């Protein structure tokens, strides 16, 4: 399994501002994923981030709102831009173990927008 | 598109009771199936998986069998403990096309076990 850390663990932000969330993995991985878990809800995939290419966004999510960087095989960032209270969620990154089909999740970033 | 449906919750049981959480899925390809658990205040952990029909995943006394004919992956445990209280998510990963590696989650089932 992979060990994944995220920063920050939580934040309270004002509407209209942006927050960048970092995800660090202890091993090199090809695919990294960003999910959102709205309060009391399940997880929804925002985008898939592969190193060396642009992120692939799911329906309902756009690059202008959730820009993603993937500068190397162990690190990625997700920015939540021009935030509104509806963006209050837990944001999680995950990676797939090599050849296992298993995905491992970071501890999440709890974002509250006021 | 792919989808996962879990039984309505929350589920409340007494310690040592038998647990079943139903999960059915719809997928265009031939998915891998997973159960994840989220303990209070903690992150999401992989509980068990199955990658092909009739496979049985097991871990910590929990089991689930990949039933292709009924498109189901029900989670079971013979004797639950208070420490099993958590939210349980059924999920699938479809390896086909543009969905490669994407996890599709069910809505989650809250389990509370009383002493």
Which descriptors apply to this entry?
heterodimer, A: 114 residues, mainly beta, 7-stranded mixed sheet, 4-stranded antiparallel sheet, globular, B: 115 residues, 6-stranded mixed sheet, 0% helix
Give structural notes.
The complex is a heterodimer of chains A (114) and B (115). Chain A is mainly beta and 114 residues long. Chain A has no helices and eleven strands. In chain A, a hairpin with a 6-residue loop joins strand 9 and strand 10 (103-105). The relative contact order of chain A is 0.34. The model of chain A has no long low-confidence stretch (mean pLDDT 93). Chain B has 115 residues and is mainly beta. Chain B has strands at residues 3-6, 11-14, 19-21, 23-26, 32-38, 44-50, 56-59, 62-65, 75-77, 86-93, 103-105, 109-114. In chain B, the strands form three sheets. In chain B, strands 2, 5, 6, 10, 11 and 12 form a six-stranded mixed beta sheet that branches. A four-stranded antiparallel beta sheet of chain B has the order 3-9-8-7, with no helix packed on it. In chain B, strands 1-4 form a two-stranded antiparallel sheet. In chain B, a hairpin with a 5-residue loop joins strand 5 and strand 6 (44-50). The model of chain B has no long low-confidence stretch (mean pLDDT 92). The A-B interface holds A 1, 31, 33, 35, 41-45, 48, 56, 58, 92, 94, 96, 101-108 and B 32, 34, 36, 42-46, 49, 51, 89, 93, 95, 98, 101-108.
